[in-house]
Amino acid sequence: MFRKRLCVISLVLLLVLTGCGKGGEEKGDTRLVLGFSQIGSESAWRIGNTRDIEEQAAAYGIGLMLENANQKQENQIAAIRRFIAYKVDAIVFSPVVEEGWDNVLLEAKDAGIPVILVDRDINTEQEGLTTCLIGADFYKEGVMAAEYLIRKADSLGLEHVNIVEITGTEHSTPMRQRQAGFMDTIAGDPRMNVLESIDGDFLKSRGAECMRYYLQKYGDTIDIVFSHNDEMTIGALPEIEKAGLVPGRDIIIISIDGGQEAIDVLKEGKINCVVECTPKLGKELMETAIKLKNGEKVEPVIHPVEQVFSDEINVSAIAPRGY
Ligand code: GYE
User: Domain of 165: which CATH number?
Assistant: First the structure.
């Protein structure tokens, strides 16, 4: 499906680049083309993010070469090399993990093509490989999750809180930052006890597996599950029910993303708190790409404003999420 769409996009792109398309008549060679390497389709968040970027590119009349890396770094590196060969105006990518990009990004730099990071960051010693990052403040998301937990423990009068964590993809920015924000915030609270953290890779199936493992090992001593995304949370809930426990009541459930499915489950009371992470980064991305093309300065980091949805608010008033 993606491959087919990519072929169509490539064809349109080729027409634009060779000046044979209608776009050439409208705006001549000022038309902007972005090469976008997306991580994959692992979650509602990711699918919503891809859709938003496609819609915003169309709204701005910006050409988009979209490649889905199916969760593999080597596919992203190959896509970036193709974007360099096509001489796109800017390379956009969401790095699946933080390390291992120096060589390919040096190639982009040598070719004079700016690189915009969306969603996730890279970790490098090299200067000037990327121009800016448009994505959430994951550390703050972890802090907000922990602050909710502390308030919840206060309101329930808990004296000891056993926590299990299901993390996102190891070595990825949201995994590292959400964990750091959460752990730093609970560190000062002597009631909080982390039993274990394991990698659920942002996948529903892994969320279920992790939860089965936790329930076998710790049984009903688990007080809270901190899951790094909605997909893994939704995978974990039936496992809790199969073990004869009620999610949202016997075990406090904290999730991140805020997609519609998780918000519906929050309304049912089976999730207690969902920290928002918006996938709608397309508008900022298009504005930034235009600024770069015009030689204007751009902010090095752009974070969207995010909120917390929880059983502390009137959940029936939450507007449709759109992802
Ligand atoms: O939380 C998860 C997705 O990088 C913020 O990746 C993103 C995360 C998001 O697969 O659902």
Answer: 3.40.50.2300
Q: What is the pLDDT of residues 142-173, one digit of tens each?
A: 999 999 999 999 999 999 999 999 999 999 99
**Ligand 1: residues within 6 Å at CB?**
42-43, 45-46, 119-120, 136, 174, 202, 229, 231, 256-257, 277
Beta strands per DSSP E along the chain: 33-38, 63-68, 90-93, 115-118, 132-134, 161-167, 192-199, 224-227, 252-257, 273-276, 301-302, 308-310
**Do 154 and 29 fall within a single domain?**
no
Over residues 110-121, the pLDDT tens digits come to 999 999 999 999
Number of domains in the chain: 2
> Domain check: are 181 and 288 in the same one?
no
Whether 310 is covered by a domain: the verdict is: no
Q: Is the pTM of this model over 0.70?
A: yes
Q: Does the residue 318 lie in any domain?
A: no
Atom of ligand 1 nearest to the CA of 202: 10
Residue 217, in any domain of the structure: yes
C-alpha 202 – ligand 1 centre gap (Å): 7
Tell me the CA–centroid distance for residue 149 and ligand 1, in Å: 21
Q: Which residues constitute the domain of residue 31? A: 2-135+279-305
Kindly provide the b/e burial profile for residues 15-45, where b requires at least 16 CB atoms within 10 angstroms of the residue's own CB. ebbeeebebeeeeeeebbbbbbbbbbebbbb
Please choose from 144, 257, 321 the residue to mutate so as to test ligand 1's pocket, defined by most ligand atoms within 8 A of CB.
257
